[in-house]
Amino acid sequence: MRILSLSALLLTGCAVRHTGFCYGTETGAELRLLDGKVERLVLAEDSAPLHFLEGHTTEIEGKKALGRIHVEDWRVHDGLHGLPVWVGPLVSHAGELGIQDRNSGVFYYLDPASARSLDPYFGDVVLLEGWVQDARRVKVAYFRVLADPEDPPS
What we know:
- It is a single chain.
- Helices cover 12% and strands 52% of the residues.
- The strands form two sheets. It has a five-stranded mixed beta barrel with strand order 1-2-3-5-4.
- The chain is mainly β.
- The N and C termini lie far apart (49 Å).
- β2 (28-33) and β3 (38-42) form a beta hairpin.
């Protein structure tokens, strides 16, 4: 019985939650924890944007098995420029471009100038840094597309 439960643990993994700085590598992605340790990440389609964060403070949840964390959920806490951050796909709502923020689950509209700048990335997952101008309207000061630049836009 004990061998069976150990085998099940190795196959399913232990639940973990870590915060650190996410970076893409040639072989995948890693999370550099606040204590200096490095955790290798296994990314699924929903977590693939982690590969492109390049140092943003990120919290990941998943299962650790065989020395890697299989990411099940993630949130970006801080931007590189000290501004609030929103992450998600650029989508249209009521005819206006905005972001469906994965951190909060809330849709935010973009101010007109930001919408014009970001329109070519419609459908892509992006990270935005900026501030809220009025009710759920974001003024973007910095953005990063969280996809391979070699991949065609969605």
